[in-house]
C-alpha cells in the first residue's frame, strides 16, 4: 500500500513519496513500513503492510539477504546486497539494494536499483495477484513440482516442495534445456513434445534414485493465433499412495494364499489304502467349495491312479440342491476317469433333504460310515474281474 500525504505535510515526506527512486523504510526486524510510489510500482502486490523485506527475494537468495541484514545491524555505514527480487510483472529480476540503519537504530532505509543486463525469470507461473499467491501456497505446502518450458524446451519455471525429495533446489534448472537435462528419460521428454504439439498429456513415472513415484500432467499454452508458446507441467509425488497400494496388494496375495491353505486343510484328500483315496468333508458345504473339491479330487485320482474315491459326509450337517447336484456330478466324473465313487456318512438330515429334492442315488454306492466304505473298496479290489463301475449297489 502506497502512503498518501496531504499537500500541507512536510515537503520532505512528499519528496520521499514521489521520488523516482524505489525507496523504502523497514523496521529493525525487516518488516516493511513505508515505501515510495516507485518502489510500489517495482514490486507490485508484494509490497503490503507487514511484509518482510526478505520475502521479496528469490528462495535461493533469501539467506544471503538475511546475512547482509545482520551485518547492517552491526555496522553504522551503508550495506549493499544483490539478489533476485519478485517484481510487479510477476517475475524475478536482479536488483542491487543499498541499506542503511537509522541513527537511533530503530529503522532501516533502503533503495532498489535494477542491475543492468539482468534476465527476468518467471516467479509465479501464468497467474498474477491472488492466483499467483494461491499457486505459491500450493507449491509450498504440497509434494508437487510446478514447472514450465518455452517452445524450445528451455525451462522457465522450476518450483515446488517436491523438489527437495529429489535433492534439487527451487529454480535450480531454470534456464537449462529440458530435453538435455532429461535425455536419459525419453518417455518423459516425449510427453513434453506431445504437449508442445498441442496435446495435453498425463503419465506416471518412477525415479529409481530414491524409489519415488510421480503423477504428471502437461498442458500446452497457446497464443491467440493457436501456436503453442509454452508448456506448463505439474508433477505430484504419489510415492506414499503407491507404496500403500503395493502393501495392500501383497496383503491380499497373502490372504489369498492363506485361504488356499485353509481350503486344502478343510478338504484334505487322504490315501487310506493302496488305490483308495478318501475326502472327509466337514462344516458348511457350498457350491464354490464343492467345485474346488471336484477339481482337487479328480487331479488326485489321476496323480495316484486310484481305483476308488470315498466322499465322507459325516461332518456335513446340511446340503442344498446345487451342492447335491455337484456331488452327483463329482461321482459321475470319477467314473469317467475309470474309478469308482462311494458316498458314506450321510446324516439323517442330509438324507431327508436329498429325498425331498427328489434326487436319484440308486446308481451310486453309499455306505453308512468311512470304515464301511473302505471295507467295500478292499473287497472289490480282491475281485479283479469286477470293475468299479459295475458295482452300483447300496448297503451297509
UniProtKB/TrEMBL annotation:
<feature type="domain" description="STAS">
    <location>
        <begin position="266"/>
        <end position="381"/>
    </location>
</feature>
<dbReference type="Pfam" id="PF08448">
    <property type="entry name" value="PAS_4"/>
</dbReference>
<protein>
    <submittedName>
        <fullName>PAS domain S-box protein</fullName>
    </submittedName>
</protein>
<dbReference type="Pfam" id="PF01740">
    <property type="entry name" value="STAS"/>
</dbReference>
<dbReference type="InterPro" id="IPR035965">
    <property type="entry name" value="PAS-like_dom_sf"/>
</dbReference>
<dbReference type="InterPro" id="IPR000014">
    <property type="entry name" value="PAS"/>
</dbReference>
<keyword id="KW-0597">Phosphoprotein</keyword>
<dbReference type="InterPro" id="IPR002645">
    <property type="entry name" value="STAS_dom"/>
</dbReference>
<dbReference type="InterPro" id="IPR051932">
    <property type="entry name" value="Bact_StressResp_Reg"/>
</dbReference>
<dbReference type="InterPro" id="IPR013656">
    <property type="entry name" value="PAS_4"/>
</dbReference>
<dbReference type="InterPro" id="IPR036513">
    <property type="entry name" value="STAS_dom_sf"/>
</dbReference>
Amino acid at each position: 500500500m502506497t502512503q498518501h500525504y496531504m499537500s500541507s505535510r512536510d515537503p520532505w515526506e512528499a519528496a520521499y513519496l514521489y521520488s523516482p527512486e524505489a525507496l523504502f523504510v523497514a523496521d529493525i526486524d525487516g518488516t516493511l513500513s513505508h515505501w515510495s510510489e516507485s518502489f510500489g510500482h517495482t514490486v507490485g502486490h508484494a509490497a503490503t503492510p507487514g511484509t518482510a523485506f526478505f520475502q521479496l527475494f528469490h528462495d535461493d537468495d533469501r539467506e544471503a539477504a538475511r546475512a547482509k541484514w545482520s551485518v547492517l545491524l552491526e555496522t553504522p555505514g551503508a550495506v549493499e546486497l544483490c539478489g533476485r527480487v519478485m517484481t510487479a510483472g510477476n517475475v524475478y529480476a536482479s536488483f542491487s539494494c543499498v541499506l542503511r540503519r537509522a541513527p537511533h537504530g530503530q529503522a532501516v532505509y533502503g533503495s532498489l536499483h535494477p542491475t543492468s543486463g539482468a534476465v527476468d525469470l518467471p516467479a509465479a507461473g501464468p497467474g498474477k495477484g491472488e492466483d499467483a499467491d494461491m499457486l505459491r501456497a500450493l507449491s509450498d505446502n504440497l509434494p508437487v513440482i510446478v514447472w514450465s518450458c518455452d517452445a524450445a524446451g528451455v525451462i522457465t519455471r522450476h518450483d515446488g516442495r517436491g523438489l527437495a525429495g529429489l535433492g534439487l533446489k527451487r529454480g535450480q534448472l531454470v534456464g537449462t534445456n529440458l530435453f538435455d537435462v532429461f535425455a536419459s528419460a525419453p518417455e518423459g521428454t516425449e510427453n513434453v513434445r506431445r504437449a508442445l504439439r498441442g496435446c495435453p498429456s498425463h503419465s506416471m513415472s518412477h525415479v529409481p534414485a530414491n524409489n519415488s513415484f510421480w503423477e504428471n500432467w502437461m498442458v500446452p499454452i497457446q497464443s491467440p493465433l493457436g501456436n503453442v508458446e509454452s508448456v506448463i507441467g505439474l508433477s505430484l509425488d504419489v510415492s506414499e499412495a503407491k507404496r500403500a497400494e503395493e502393501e495392500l496388494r501383497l496383503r491380499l496375495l497373502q490372504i489369498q494364499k492363506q485361504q488356499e491353505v485353509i481350503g486344502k486343510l478343510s478338504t484334505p484328500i487322504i490315501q487310506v489304502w493302496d488305490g483308495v483315496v478318501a475326502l472327509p468333508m466337514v462344516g458348511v458345504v457350498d457350491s464354490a467349495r464343492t467345485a474346488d473339491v471336484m477339481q482337487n479330487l479328480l487331479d488326485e485320482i489321476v496323480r495316484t491312479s486310484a481305483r476308488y474315491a470315498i466322499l465322507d459326509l459325516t461332518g456335513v450337517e446340511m446340503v442344498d440342491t446345487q451342492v447335491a447336484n455337484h456331488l452327483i456330478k463329482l461321482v459321475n466324473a470319477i467314473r469317467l476317469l475309470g474309478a469308482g465313487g462311494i458316498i458314506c456318512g450321510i446324516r439323517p438330515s442330509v438324507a431327508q433333504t436329498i429325498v425331498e429334492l427328489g434326487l436319484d442315488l440308486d446308481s451310486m454306492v453309499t455306505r453308512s460310515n468311512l470304515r464301511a466304505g473302505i471295507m467295500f473298496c478292499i473287497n472289490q479290489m480282491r475281485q479283479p474281474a469286477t470293475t468299479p463301475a459295475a458295482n452300483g449297489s447300496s448297503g451297509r
